[in-house]
Specification:
Strand content: 15-25%
Shape: elongated
Distance between the termini: 25 Å
Structural class: alpha/beta
Bound molecules: zinc ion
Number of domains: 3
Helix content: 25-40%
Radius of gyration: 29 Å
Strand order of the largest sheet: 13-10-14-17-15-16
Number of strands: 17
Number of helices: 17
C-alpha cells in the first residue's frame, strides 16, 4: 500500500492528511464488508447508546486527561494520528466504540455512515435523539436505530436527505457532505476577506459545497491533501472524529495557510509507472527517500532535464519525469511540454509512393503544420527533420532523448492494394515503459483523425515499430491513410485535408494531456 512508504517521517498534521491518501483504496474494501453486515451490526455499535454529557467548558481538561492515559481503543494506539481527537470525543461520550469480547475498538479506518455521522453530530451539539412516530424518510423507519438522531439532525437543518425521499443512512459520508454538515452544525462563521482565492485545485467556486469547504479550510478543520480536497471521497471514522473534535475545540485545529495554492507549482504530475522512486536530488545515484505508486498526483515545482522537482509530503524530492504525465496548472495543457514530431523518411528514403507523390513530402508537410499549432499553444516542439533530409531511426529516437522529450509522434503514410483505406495508429507495449500512456495517446489521435478527416477507422494497434519501441515516453506512429487508395490519396495531397490531419493530431495530443 502506498501509504506505508509515505507515512513514516511525518508530523501529526501531515499524517492526518496522508491517512486520507493512504487509506483511500483500503477503505473501499472495508466499506464493502461493513455494508454487507451493516444493518445487524449497527445495532451493536455502542457509539450510539448513551446520552451525551457534552460540556464545552470542560473540553480542554478532558483533552489533556485523555491524551496522557493509555489508549482507550485497542485499534487507536498511542501513535495513531487521531488518537487525541478520538479520545476527546470518547471523553465527551460522543463516541463509544465497539466492545468486542471485552476489547474496546473504534474501527478508525471504516467509513463513517450518514447515520453514524448524524448521531455523532447531534451528540456533539449536546442534543438528544428525537422521538419518531412517523417515518420522514422511506428508508428510515421509526424503528431504525438512528431514526431519532437523524430526525434531530434534520430538524436542526444539518441534514436534508435526498430528493427521492431517502436518507441513505448506511451510505458512506462523502467529504463534500461532511463539509456541509460540519459547517452547518457548528455554525462556522464566514471566513474574513479571503477573496476569490483558489484553495483546492479540484474545487471551483461554482461547486455546490464550495462555501462549506472554504469555511472548513479557514477554520482549520480540513485542509485536504496536496492542494486537493477530493470531495467525492469517503470519510473514515477517524477522519470524521478529527473534524468534529476540531470543530468543538480550537486546540485541535490545523494551522491555516492564507495563500494556500503554492504559486511556484508549475504543473501536476501523475505517476505512470507502477512505482516511482523519489530521490533526494536530481540524479539516478541520489538516495531514494520514498516511492510513489501508479496514479499518484504530485505538484511539480521545477523541471531540469529529466528531473522533476516535486513537493512530496510537505518536503521536496526529485523524480524522473519520463514517468510523470505532466499537466499544466494554468493555460493550454501542452504549454511548456516538450513534444517530438517525427516526419517519417526523407532525403534518399522517399517512403511509399504513388507516381511522383512521395510519403516523405506529405508527412513533412503535415508535421510542419502540427509543429505550428503546438508551438502556438506554447509547446516546445522538436522536429526530427525540418527539410528533405534522411535520418536513421536511431537518430530520431536519440533526438527525442537528447531534448528531454515528453511525447513522441511519428507521422507516416500507408500503401497496399487500392482497396485498402483508412487511418491506423500504432503504439508499443513490448518495450516502451509508457505503453499504456502510448495507447491512450494513440486512441485520442486516431479518433480525432477518423472523425475530422472522415477516414475509415482501422483502429489503434500494438506493434513494436522501432521509434515507438525505443522511446521511453508515450510514443505513437500514425499512418494517416493509404497513398494507394484514390479517396485517401485525394485527402493526403490536399492542403485543406493536410491541415485537418494536423489539427487532429494536435487535438489528440491536447486531449491526451487533458485526460
Ligand atoms: Zn512510412
Amino acid at each position: 500500500m502506498k501509504g506505508e512508504v509515505l507515512l513514516q517521517p511525518l508530523r501529526l498534521l501531515l499524517l492526518c492528511l496522508l491517512m486520507f491518501f493512504g487509506y483511500s483504496s483500503g477503505t473501499y474494501a472495508e466499506t464493502n464488508s461493513s455494508a454487507a453486515s451493516s444493518q445487524g451490526d449497527l445495532q451493536k455499535i455502542q457509539d450510539f447508546h448513551q446520552p451525551s454529557p457534552f460540556n464545552a467548558e470542560s473540553a480542554s481538561a478532558s483533552f489533556s486527561a485523555a491524551s496522557t492515559a493509555k489508549p482507550v481503543f485497542a485499534d487507536v494506539p498511542a501513535d495513531h494520528w487521531a488518537k487525541k481527537e478520538i479520545e476527546f470525543l470518547y471523553g465527551r461520550a460522543i463516541i463509544q466504540g465497539y466492545n468486542e469480547n471485552g476489547v474496546l475498538r473504534f474501527h478508525p479506518n471504516e467509513n463513517v455512515t450518514r447515520a453514524q455521522a448524524a448521531k455523532m453530530i447531534v451528540k456533539a451539539l449536546g442534543q438528544s435523539e428525537k422521538t419518531v412516530t412517523r417515518a420522514r424518510f422511506k428508508d428510515v423507519p421509526p424503528s431504525h436505530w438512528a431514526a431519532g438522531w437523524i430526525e434531530r439532525a434534520v430538524e436542526k437543518g444539518i441534514f436534508q436527505g435526498y430528493s427521492d425521499g431517502t436518507f441513505q443512512p448506511d451510505a458512506p459520508l462523502k467529504r463534500s457532505q461532511m463539509s456541509k454538515i460540519i459547517a452547518l452544525a457548528f455554525k462556522l462563521p464566514e471566513p474574513g476577506n479571503v477573496g476569490n482565492k483558489q484553495i483546492f485545485r479540484d474545487i471551483s467556486p461554482s461547486y455546490w459545497a464550495y462555501p462549506y469547504i472554504v469555511k472548513l479550510y479557514y477554520h482549520g478543520i480540513s485542509n485536504g491533501s496536496e492542494n486537493q480536497f477530493m470531495p467525492e471521497s469517503y470519510t473514515s471514522r477517524a477522519q470524521f472524529s478529527a473534524f468534529v473534535a476540531r470543530a468543538l475545540n480550537k486546540d485541535f485545529r490545523l494551522p491555516v495557510n492564507s495563500s494556500p495554492v503554492n504559486s511556484s507549482v508549475i504543473a501536476t504530475g501523475k505517476v505512470t509507472a507502477d512505482t516511482l522512486n523519489v530521490r533526494s536530488s536530481g540524479s539516478a545515484s541520489a538516495s531514494v527517500i520514498g516511492q510513489l505508486s501508479y496514479g499518484t498526483v504530485v505538484n511539480v515545482l521545477e523541471i531540469n532535464g529529466y528531473w522533476a522537482k516535486i513537493s512530496y509530503n510537505g518536503k521536496t524530492g526529485y523524480v524522473h519525469k519520463t514517468y510523470l504525465k505532466l499537466k499544466n496548472v494554468n493555460g493550454n495543457p501542452v504549454q511548456g511540454r516538450i513534444i517530438v514530431i517525427d516526419a517519417g523518411h526523407g532525403g534518399t528514403d522517399p517512403g511509399t509512393m504513388n507516381g511522383k507523390t512521395y510519403e516523405k513530402n506529405i508527412v513533412l508537410s503535415v508535421a510542419q503544420k502540427v509543429k505550428q499549432k503546438l508551438a502556438s499553444a506554447g509547446a516546445k516542439v522538436i522536429m526530427t527533420r525540418e527539410s528533405d533530409v534522411y535520418k536513421t531511426l536511431e537518430e530520431r529516437v536519440q533526438i527525442a532523448k537528447n531534448n528531454y522529450a515528453e511525447l513522441f509522434v511519428s507521422i507516416h503514410v500507408n500503401s497496399a492494394s487500392p482497396s485498402a483505406s483508412g487511418t491506423e495508429t500504432y503504439y508499443d507495449t513490448s518495450k516502451n515503459p509508457n505503453g499504456y500512456e502510448s495507447y491512450l495517446l494513440a486512441k485520442a489521435i486516431q479518433q480525432q483523425i477518423v472523425n475530422n478527416a472522415g477516414m475509415k477507422d482501422r483502429g489503434v494497434k500494438d506493434y513494436d515499430f522501432y521509434v515507438v519501441r525505443n522511446n521511453n515516453v508515450p510514443s505513437v506512429l500514425v499512418e494517416l491513410g493509404f497513398i494507394t487508395n484514390s479517396s485517401d490519396y485525394q485527402k493526403l495531397t490536399s492542403d485543406h485535408y493536410q491541415n485537418i490531419f494536423a489539427q487532429s493530431i494536435y487535438n489528440g495530443i491536447v486531449q491526451y494531456y487533458s485526460q
